[in-house]
Amino acid sequence: QVQVVESGGGLVQPGGSLRLSCAASGFTSDYYAIGWFRQAPGKEREGASCISSYDGSTIYADSVKGRFTISRDNAKNTVYLQMNSLKPEDTAVYYCAAHTWGSSCPRLDSDGAGEYDFWGQGTQVTVSS
Predict the structure, then answer these.
(1) Which class for 54: exposed (0-12), middle (13-18), buried (19 or more C-beta within 10 A)?
(2) Which residues of the chain have pLDDT under 50?
(3) Interatomic CA distance for residues 88 and 79, integer angstroms
(4) What is the pLDDT of residue 101?
(5) Of the candidates 109, 83, 105, which has an alpha carbon nearest to the alpha carbon of residue 94?
(6) Is the Cβ–Cβ distance between 120 and 97 less than 8 Å?
(7) Distance, CA of 110 to CA of 24 (rounded, Å)
(8) Confidence at residue 102, expressed as pLDDT on a 0 to 100 scale
């Protein structure tokens, strides 16, 4: 059974940085993708980024492009989301999710979110002074 577990959330001041980790296990194939999503109170879930396990290709939402960087350490089966220049509007519960149908990242919209079949429990990120 595939499992993904997030860690690294916390409280940070505006302009600060955090690195989230997603430890993934249980894959029976090398062809999958890991995505990061977030959901703020009262708002819909929003895709942030995704990385392919096969070729390392990445996609980003416009709202985080240039500030967030997704990366992977295949030896540790871990995907990271480095978040810089954080803003109060980045406050949300961040989830990592696994797409196991193939290695290409699904879209980060609501339709694409339906292609991720394993989700973590989430980690809270709060950006506040």
Answers:
(1) middle
(2) none
(3) 24
(4) 87
(5) 83
(6) yes
(7) 22
(8) 87
Q: Do 41 and 97 form a contact (C-beta atoms < 8 A)?
A: no
Amino acid letter at 12?
Answer: V
Nearest to 47 by CA among 56, 32, 59: 59
Q: Max alpha carbon distance in the chain (Å)?
A: 44
CB atoms within 10 A of CB 43: 10
Type of residue at 38: R
Give the C-alpha separation, 113 to 126, whole Å: 23
β-sheet with 3-7: strand ranges across: 3-7, 18-25, 78-83, 68-73
Residue 22: exposed, middle, or buried by beta-carbon count in 10 A (0-12, 13-18, 19+)?
A: buried
Residue 126, H or E segment: strand 123-127
- DSSP conformational letter for 105: P
